[in-house]
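chain below, 399 aa
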Amino acid sequence: MEKYSARLNRMSFSQTFVMSNKVREMKANGIDVISLTLGEPDFDVPQNIKAAAFEAINDNFSHYSPVPGFLDLRQAICDKLKRDNNLEYLPSQICVSNGAKQSILNVLASILNEGDEVILPAPYWVSYDEMVKMMDGKSVFVKTSIETDFKITAEQLEKAITLKTKALLYSSPCNPSGSFYTYEELEKIADVIARHPQITIISDEIYEYINYDGKHTSIAEFPQVYEQTAVINGMSKAFAMTGWRIGYSACPAWLAKGCEKIQGQMTSGANTVAQKASVTALKTDPSEYRYMIEEFRKRRELVYGLVKEIPGFKVNYPEAAFYFFPDISYYIGKKLNGNQIKDADDFAMFLLENAHVGTVGGVSFGNSNCIRFSYAASEAELKEAMNRIKTCLEKVAVS
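prediction:
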């Protein structure tokens, strides 16, 4: 008798965590492995945010918060959206969750019926497709490539829409590619969605601040789709608060009520101390935390120069986030030291076992020709990792 639900059997384990677990196992066995698998800033939380957390503890913020979050935090989020994105929201349109993952799930649970379609531009973050499966929806993938900077066009989007389409889910800046959509590109996408009022845009903007060469645009800025857009963001990336688990959604009023209803039956409010610390983080001028972004910028330049020298790699110049997503299709279908490489997951495993560098294959990101690695690591680790990969592939027997 099958004990697992059909829902669970449809899902896969996160490939990011699969690879990071293998790295941990190898390290536990005394193998010197450099892990570039997880998308986590390697900085500590800024001191003023930690101080706010201690203050919240001393002020006894240890009881339940309202389901969608404390009012002062929701107001701080509204102020941030106005300051940084020129977006007008009321606190009643904000739902604070246990990380941006829950924020996305709240939206999907609020709008999807069985068989409804969600358009995912590929590559996409590994959990998107699994989240759609959890909510009994169906993912519709729109393929991109390194030649198009891993971005879809409005024309591609229009062709993917059917009578069953209920949502478009994407990240900009993008995990895993490091690309972001410009104002002009998003305007064209907004014009397409505006012609289909049954579609909700779920715009994951968690990497908003980690944007090196252009101004971030939220698609909710376009009035024709404001009432169709759920903006997703959170504290993990820009503030190095990954373990604090604070994400949020900003939605039209009808959808915000749905998110609150779902969350009220699932987890209730998020961690109260982390909420209070987040108020301080959001009220602080973003320039105070710019030192982390500038460090990522330096690492990007370092790694870009090194990765271009690796044989068989094609790489774009990521303008945001802290990932590279090189195309390694040169190796697909070949044998490396007798190991058959059928896709990028096989290639990532080969690098782990032979170069002792942990990366993530692109299959679960929707692209079987690419691998993802994070440069949220020290310069010394990044130099050594790129050297290990380059040396390994220069010496490998390809057949």
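The chain has two domains: 6-44+289-395, 47-285. The first strand starts at residue 34 and ends at 35.
thats it, cya
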